Amino acid sequence: WEAIQTGTGNSQYSGSVTIGTSLSGSTYQLNDTSRGNHKTYNKARSTSSSAGTLFTDADDTWGTGTASSSSTSQTAAVDAHYGAQVTWDFYKNVLGRNGIKNNGVAAYSRVHYGNAYVNAFWDDSCFCMTYGDGEGNTKPLTSIDVAGHEMTHGVTSNTAGLNYSGESGGLNEATSDIFGTAVEFYAANSKDVGDYLIGEKIDINGDGTPLRYMDQPSKDGSSANYWSSSLGGLDVHYSSGPANHFYYLLSEGSGSKTINGVSYNSPTSNGATITGIGRDKATKIWYKALTEYMTSTTNYKGARTATLNAAAALYGSGSTEYNAVNATWAAVNVTG
Ligand code: ASN
Ligand code: ZN
Ligand code: CA
Fold first, then answer.
1. I need a surface site. Which of 99, 156, 181, 228 has the fewest CB within 10 A?
2. Is the distance from the beta carbon of residue 120 to the nearest atom of ligand 1 less than 6 Å?
3. Ligand 1 atom nearest to 149, measured from its CA
């Protein structure tokens, strides 16, 4: 018998948070029974394919809130568990999706994977996401935008199924950045105020810069701002650029802007000025396009059509939103 509990989590990146746990006998577990039984496991440096050991605790207060190189620290587990929880709630409350497969069943998370492993990934075969501890084993890749990114790979796999290469691969990656960002803005805690940067908290470059910039993807030195005929030859984490840029422009508009203390400057390929329609509408348009109009082979031209169809269905063809989608694609060099 397991009772639904809410534990206190002292996370590394999101402050003190409430997390879904359960009580089995007299032991608490990282098993969120209110969200499809999402469990978080400890790999304790192993890279084997097993789930690992379910995190347990005596008093339902988890983690210390500070970085630790311990291979079994609860803190990384708190961030991963919380990230999955907020992502679950975002999909349910904002987009009406009940879990990755829309069937109420959760995936699971594994932390402390490998030794100083600097990556996180979704795996269709285990239906799980996995997080390394980062450089020095003290920078786990468990920030909320990364958790939202990885869990969204599961959603994409189970909806459009965008092939993970060429332009469809870039759109797959962008979909994870888009909803990872939307999840970060959705999170209601004191530390995650929301930004259009990816991985700004995990310090993967060692100099405080984020992994990716949605307002101007080329700021990472490798991503494309605009579509070109050679885009599909880039790594999928760089060919995501024009779609990430599309999402920023459609949400916030072109030019300079400061949001939650972060400064952005978003250019356009054609010199057009774009007026944003807001992040909520941009998010709903991308989700409807992903789940109803995109397929495994959708390319950038197809993404334009899919989002126009989604905007027409949601707001009407010829609506302000529809026209903004059209103008924004043109501003990243995607036309009909
Ligand atoms: N962290 C990467 C991602 O989710 C892992 C990968 O390249 N598959 O995209
Ligand atoms: Zn990814
Ligand atoms: Ca972010």
1. 228
2. yes
3. 4
Q: Which stretches of the chain drop beneath a pLDDT of 50?
A: none
Domain boundaries 2-157, CATH class: alpha beta
Return the axis-axis angle of helices 300-315 and 241-252, rounded to nearest 10°. 30
Q: Does domain 166-331 have CATH number 1.10.390.10?
A: yes
Candidates 27, 125, 122; CA nearest to 80 is 122
Q: Are 299 and 167 a contacting pair, CB within 8 Å?
A: yes
Q: Which residues are catalytic?
A: 150, 237
CA atoms within 13 A on the CB side of 45: 10
Matching CATH topology for 2-157 and 166-331? no
Distance CA 296, CA 63 (A): 40
CA dist list (Å): 34 to 40, 84, 98, 103: 14, 12, 12, 14
| ipTM for this prediction | 0.96
Measured from the CA of 173, which atom of ligand 1 is nearest? Answer: 9
